[in-house]
Amino acid sequence: MLDSLLHLLLPNVCAVCNRLLVEGESGFCRSCRAEFDPFALSTEGEGMLRSTIAARFGSSFAFDRGWCSYLFHKNSPLQSALHSMKYGGLFSLGRVFGRELGELVAASGSAEEIDCVVPVPLHPLKKIERTYNQSEVIALPLARRIERPMMGHVLRRKRSTRSQTGLSAGERRVNLEGAFKAVGDVGGMHVLLVDDVVTTGSTMAAASKALLGAGAARISLASVALALKE
């Protein structure tokens, strides 16, 4: 709570260590950012994302392209930043992460193939409680960077689900079964689905199933971080 108040009063402080930011720093100081674990190449992140999802879903969940900025580690500065973004009210960090993801997608040369950007939705009651959806905050600057519309209205969370934290891969799949419904026109579209963290891929798989069932032609994935079992 004190950290959130500090960031409201002094927005130019590091989201992890609360030190004042200097020119050229955004969201995080250089020292804390140096402890993040970025993928050296976008293809490395995509390869690990494919391996993670294939281990859980085999060939039942096929996606077109995938982008991840960082490898997630427990008790790391990145975990602290993501937690502050998601639960601590520091939604501005989502803009920082979204711009970074946008650069990754743009640099890949695949942005022109994408028709729209869709954030993974929160249940309406959870969004009221949190006041914002961190995936929407991430998706907006990403969409602007690749000059594609963000279509947050086309996917809805039908029911509130338990937090995925602490659940096994199987429990995550059951928890999200039938949780999403496509309510907008995505017929024939190549949809870029955006979330903050991918752990087993269960959320992305459930959301993709709803979009494909509504006629989407292809699904690609983008997330700030990929969390492997440690």
List keywords for this structure.
alpha/beta; two-stranded antiparallel sheet; 6 strands; 16% strand; globular
- Counting helices, strands and paired strands, the structural category is alpha/beta
Mind summarizing the main beta sheet? 4 strands, parallel
Using only CA atoms, what is the Rg? 17 Å
Note the gap between the termini.
29 Å
Order of helices and strands: HHHEHHEHHEHEEHE
How many helical stretches?
9
**What name does the CATH topology of the largest domain carry?**
Rossmann fold
Number of E-state strands: 6
Family: Belongs to the ComF/GntX family.
Protein name: ComF family protein
Pfam families: Pribosyltran
Domain Phosphoribosyltransferase: 137-225
General description of the model:
The chain is an alpha/beta fold and 230 residues long. Strand 5, helix 9 and strand 6 form a beta-alpha-beta unit. Helix 5 runs parallel beside helix 7.
Short note summarizing the structure:
InterPro entries: ComF/GntX_DNA_util-trans, PRTase-like, PRTase_dom. By secondary structure, this protein is an alpha/beta fold.
Strand-helix topology:
Layout: H1 2-9, H2 30-33, H3 42-57, E1 66-72, H4 77-87, H5 92-108, E2 116-119, H6 124-130, H7 134-146, E3 155-157, H8 169-176, E4 180-182, E5 190-198, H9 202-213, E6 218-227
Parallel strand pairs: 1-6, 2-5, 5-6
Antiparallel strand pairs: 3-4
Helix pairs in contact: 5-7
